[in-house]
Amino acid sequence: METRVCLITPESLAWAKEIIEKGGVVAMPTETVYGLGSSAFNDAAVRKIFEVKGRPNNNPLIAHVHETYDLSQIIDYDPPYAQKLRAAFLPGPLTLVYPSKGKVSPFVSCGLDTLAIRVPAHAGARAFLKKVGVPIVAPSANISRHVSPTSAQHVLDDFDGKIPLILDGGECTGGIESTVCDCTGEYPVILRPGLITREMIEKVVGRCDEYAPDLENPQQVKSPGMLYKHYAPRCKTLLFSQKNVEQAILRYVKESQENKGVAVLCEEKWISEFEKIGAKCLNLGKNQAEMASRLYKLLREAERFCDTLIVVEPQESDGIMTGVLNRLRKACTSQDV
């Protein structure tokens, strides 16, 4: 199969719709990461996504819809606080989990009676969703557990020859996946942190909790990103906290002496410390938005030349950094004791 990368035009959107209607898969941009999309109503198409990605079949998918789509067609209950969240943040990087009417393929939610729905803000995604007119399930367009894609080239790197079309909407600005909130209870509960923070949600609806897994009694998850090692580059990754920067420097020296390709990924404040020892540095940025937007791009850059990537966690841990740290800790092997 030839994989074509096309800018978003009336012609490419028409072709994308044809592929979707025939049960195929199309990669689409969003403001967070690129997604691998198919019709939520087509069992075979949904199963194809799991097959192409190598995705575990107990990891549910998110349905993407245009802002004009009538949610009552696919959800069983729409709590008032969810309506407030949609008014405040959508279109945008927020996914809401509702009780499902069971109208979409059962493979979307892996047998659960809930459905995760997102309304992306990216202009190209909105044009695509309006053109196809159906909910599109679209997990991140990467091989399962690999680093999520923030450009069409990243998607091509993972799926060249495996899907027919990648809609090229430029580089994603958000950089990490959407926040996921469970809206099946009396108040929202964050299942996966992202660009819409707990503090932002609380300002709109008053109360918002964060999911705390019961490790002794694991249950089927309601959201992507809650299980498994995720977001990992194809090189050894060693993660150090801020309190262990000296150990990170020593480990860099040790790895370098073994003639390996080694680099450091850290926030801007530590760059000068590593440059003193001649380290190759990947600058994560100096503020929360920069660090979120650069994370996946730099992890993919590192895997092109690194045998070992030394990563130092950013100092801040609130707001958007909750999501950034969540991704780093799933992607990298912690060296803290």
Task: Write a concise keyword list for the protein shown above.
globular, 337 residues, 11-stranded mixed β-sheet, alpha/beta
The quaternary organization reads as single chain
Mean pLDDT: 93
Q: Determine the strand fraction and express it as a percent band.
A: 15-25%
Unreliable residue runs: none
Q: Largest sheet, if any?
A: 11 strands, mixed
- Spatial strand arrangement across the major sheet: 1-8-2-3-7-4-6-5-9-10-11
Provide an overview of this structure.
Helices cover 31% and strands 18% of the residues. Strands 1-8-2-3-7-4-6-5-9-10-11 form an 11-stranded mixed sheet, sandwiched between helices. A 5-stranded parallel sheet has the order 14-13-15-12-16, with helices on both faces. The relative contact order is 0.15. It is α/β, with parallel strands linked by helices. The radius of gyration is 20 Å and the shape is globular. The mean pLDDT is 93.
